[in-house]
Write a structure and sequence with these properties.
The protein has 2 domains: about 100 residues, TATA-Binding Protein (2-Layer Sandwich); about 60 residues, 3-methyladenine DNA Glycosylase II, Chain A, domain 3. The protein contains 5 helices and 6 strands; from the N terminus they run ββαββββαααα. A hairpin with a 5-residue loop joins β4 and β5. The longest helix is centred in the middle third of the chain and has 20 residues. The radius of gyration is 18 Å and the shape is globular. About 30% of the residues are buried. The chain binds iron/sulfur cluster. The site of iron/sulfur cluster has 15 residues, from α4. Iron/sulfur cluster binds next to α4.
Amino acid sequence: MVMLLETIKNLEIFRPKCDATKEVLHAIADLAEDISPALPYLNAELGGWDYDDRNHVLLLKLSAGKWVTLQPQQIAIRGCRDIAEAQALMEWIKNQVNEIYERRHAILPRYTGQAGLKVMEILKLLPRTNCRACGYATCMAYAAALREGEISWENCLPLQEEKSQGQLAGLRAYLDSYGWRALDEG
Ligand code: SF4
């Protein structure tokens, strides 16, 4: 396999001075190679939260408050529990860059991110009865959580009923058009 990203030149793991909680670590890796050709494919495969194709910046939102920012020659991670988790996450993203770039001919690149999803557009595709079966007080609150990937479209039980299949298909198509996925999906 020809690797796009072979060398992490420098890896710094540190506790940010501005973080009042003092309970998370950040990590920054400087890269020997330019990974920008892989970014639209990583965005497609990993469900990027936001992607700026002009400036080659991809933002990934992971579970448990972790974020990864990829730029042409830098990867930054924030929200790690400890050094071991920061190192493992950096190794994971390095492998993802290489594996996904290797498979790029079979992947449709994506140039939009989940940040483009609008809560009001999601709301329009929900039953809007505020029945609370999903555990949220209102459909609006559910729509906001769904946009963030904190819950699944499956959590709205009325939407799973036979009579709502057309509406559900519309919601899923809208989410898919921005590469939506739940935070705990791989
Ligand atoms: S289960 Fe569906 S219809 Fe009921 S409150 Fe939640 S989002 Fe609205």
